[in-house]
Design brief:
Blueprint lengths: L5 H4 L3 H27 L9 H28 L2 H5 L2 H27 L6 H21 L12
Helix pairs in contact: 2-3, 2-6, 3-5, 5-6
Bound molecules: protoporphyrin IX containing FE.
Length: 151
């Protein structure tokens, strides 16, 4: 007996979940980029990168947890449509790379507060999370055979 996914029985469930997904990425990626802009020498200049990272640590973590849960629930609405979707696979590759980079190289660089240091690390971080976002947006525009059918 196949169990019906409650997400597929209500028209509102998916868009409401996507709202949480977007809020989660604004908080998670938004706070990571605040620190990256500080490393690049603009934005919140009254605080050091390490102080800014300390102040935003739980916001970033909370946002990423919200992304993971809302993302897994969105995924559960049609797993076979997503894991065969190159944009989704591409996004997951950069999501995992972004998480590892953020809590290793990025964290060590930020904590060192080296003057003028960290510009390359900030650019890599901004690039990685941009690719996650692009992957997320293109999920809806690409199907598993990669032919673009919306444009
Ligand atoms: C910080 C990490 C993440 C970011 C920045 C992100 C970003 C996005 C964006 C921008 C969209 C498109 C929303 C739209 O077109 O309305 C999206 C959709 C989606 N994301 Fe994520 N996402 C993240 C993590 C995840 C994770 C971890 C999963 C699954 C395990 C996931 C699964 C999905 C799914 C299934 C969709 C719906 C695609 C659709 O059918 O339109 N996301 N995400």
């Amino acid at each position: 007996m196949l169990i019906e996914n409650p997400l597929n029985s209500s028209e509102l469930a998916f868009p409401i979940l996507e709202c949480f997904h977007i809020v989660g990425f604004a908080i998670s990626v938004g706070t990571i980029w605040l620190v990256d802009f500080r490393l690049l020498g603009f934005g919140m200049l009254r605080e050091s990168p390490s102080q800014l990272a300390k102040d935003t640590f739980f916001w970033t973590l909370g946002g990423l947890i919200l992304m993971l849960f809302s993302g897994l629930m969105l995924f559960s609405s049609g797993p076979e449509d997503y894991y065969l979707n190159y944009a989704f696979d591409f996004k997951m590759l950069f999501f995992v790379s972004g998480i590892i980079f953020n809590y290793t190289v990025h964290r060590r660089t930020v904590q060192s507060d080296a003057p003028g240091g960290g510009k390359l690390v900030a650019c890599i971080s901004i690039g990685l999370w941009s690719l996650v976002i692009f992957g997320g947006i293109f999920i809806g525009f690409l199907n598993s055979t990669l032919d673009i059918h919306h444009i």
